[in-house]
Amino acid sequence: MTTHTTRMLILGSGPAGLTAAIYGARAGMKPILVQGIQPGGQLMTTTDVENYPGFADVIQGPWLMEQMQKQAEHVGTQLMYDTIVEVDLSKRPFRLIGDGGDVYEGDTLVIATGAQAKWLGLDSEESLKGKGVSACATCDGFFYRGKKVAVIGGGNTAVEEALYLTNHSKDVTIIHRRDHFRAEKILQDRLFAHESVNVLWNKEVSTFVDGGGTAGLVALELKDTQTGEISRLDVDGGFVAIGHHPATELFRGHVELDSDHYIKVQTGTTKTSVPGVFACGDVMDKHYRQAVTAAGTGCMAALDAERFLAEVEFKVAEAAE
């Protein structure tokens, strides 16, 4: 068992965690970043990225994350391949324990563990991810300009995604397994008033149909939830919008979470309910969930952590005089 100590400990290696690491390292905090169960975050499973600033051409998600990791290491971040299984945030330094027994202690902690999209769990869905099946209309809707798309779900996320897709498509179908939406009424009113949106009630996707070769998704096989009748809907893109799981299980009972289990932060900051603990990226952001916004909050977390330590150290020095 080895104990690793740092002024800034970062948990999570997506755009938020790596940006926090870059800013923390440049501030001389010698951060340690524990990469967790999915090094690189969700962008490691994203193929074409067209909306990250600074790149005129389409780039690949894994390549972007590789560049961020190299930049973080270049400026002085220590990347650790470990999975944290236990945390103690009751006192500083904060103490995290890896599954191999290594201990990580940080004067500050930045939580950037992200959130995972919920999927339907179909084999056909898994094989067509990135080939017509997506969980983010804001990320991928642009690729379906003028094409026929479908959104699966019935909550706020599904209705918002369907409305967003009308910016690119004049043929948007929203598929819901019940006969009414759970979304807020104002969103439903906008949806029902939109001429480009069609709703299929009491339907669930049984299969994402692969066109073979390079075709990708060509249709959805639907099952009527009341009659069991099978039907087919030809589409170019299918967007699963049934919610997200923030990766906060480790922190329940340690920091304050909201009703959806996202980490609560003070408005306009990344400060959590525990002084010295900061949260950034999708683990605290249920609204935007973009790589660029995650990176922005990662920058904020590093600056918040730096200022926190400066204030603590100033008070200690003042008390010693």
Structure described in brief:
The chain has helices at residues 15-26, 61-74, 123-127, 137-140, 156-165, 185-193, 291-320, and strands at 3-11, 32-34, 48-49, 59-60, 78-80, 84-88, 94-98, 103-111, 115-117, 133-134, 148-152, 171-175, 197-200, 203-210, 217-224, 230-234, 237-240, 244-246, 277-279. The protein is an alpha/beta fold and 321 residues long. The protein is elongated and about 75 Å long.
Walk me through what this model shows.
The longest helix is centred in the C-terminal third of the chain and has 30 residues, at 291-320. The protein has helices at residues 15-26, 61-74, 123-127, 137-140, 156-165, 185-193, 291-320; strands at 3-11, 32-34, 48-49, 59-60, 78-80, 84-88, 94-98, 103-111, 115-117, 133-134, 148-152, 171-175, 197-200, 203-210, 217-224, 230-234, 237-240, 244-246, 277-279. Strand 11 (148-152), helix 5 and strand 12 form a beta-alpha-beta unit. The mean pLDDT is 94. Helix 1 (15-26) packs parallel to helix 2. The chain contains seven helices and 19 strands. The radius of gyration is 22 Å and the shape is elongated. It has 321 residues and is an alpha/beta fold. Strands 1, 2, 5, 6, 7, 8 and 19 form a seven-stranded mixed sheet that branches. The protein has a five-stranded parallel sheet with strand order 10-17-11-12-13. It holds the Pfam family Pyr_redox_2. Keywords: Disulfide bond, FAD, Flavoprotein, NADP, Oxidoreductase, Redox-active center. Its EC number is 1.8.1.9.
